[in-house]
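From the pipeline queue, job 12 of 40. The input is one protein chain; the requested action is below.

Action: predict structure.
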Amino acid sequence: MAWKLIPLLLLLAWTASTSSARDRTDLLNVCMDAKHHKAKPGPEDKLHDQCSPWKKNACCSVNTSRELHKDTSLLYNFNWDHCGKMEPACKRHFIQDTCLYECSPNLGPWIQQVDQSWRKERFLDVPLCKEDCESWWEACRTSYTCKSNWHKGWDWTSGSNKCPAEATCRTFESYFPTPAALCEELWSHSYKVSNYSRGSGRCIQMWFNPAQGNPNEEVARFYALAVTAGAMSHGMGPLLLSLALMPQLWLLG
């Protein structure tokens, strides 16, 4: 009898509706699969200088935190001073950006798989608090660069990044006329400028006071719940289809 297939259909539908959510159980407290990240986050009591806010739970090692503070770090051989000396206030924001990238265990909802020689994962469209983006742009607008996308297009023949032959050194403001242009275009949309403010629980803070806890933990929980709920909603399709077929199965029986 066809009606005997109904329990099987319901089981298959339930499996489809829950598998997506189960695949996303690692959205919280995770490290990216990338060049210098630890396999799992954990305490690092001696994280260096600007990376120290993550010392209670970090994806970066002490050595990584020290190295990324250098002008030309051995982590990626990337030279901030490719168009002359970068202003110290500007450089502080780039160091903080790198600390967030290397150390944060709270970027799981935005991690995407990539096929790149130096990493298997990246984050995409992280909702960066608007004040953090605005202060980054203000600090860097008078420093100089020669490119609007720093992920690609450099001359690496010397071993570190140099401006390509056709590029011209101009102010950041020339290449990035708005804060959003800087934060979103610089690293191929790793960030998306949020309309939310610091402390809202809805945007990732690049800067925070560790004595008051890590605010990005709450942000990650909020977006992880949204991602999981969306996956489960999408997975209900097979269940609804199965239920719709039940009357026809009864008739066939």
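Job complete. Residues 1-24, 236-245, 248-253 have pLDDT under 50 and may be disordered.
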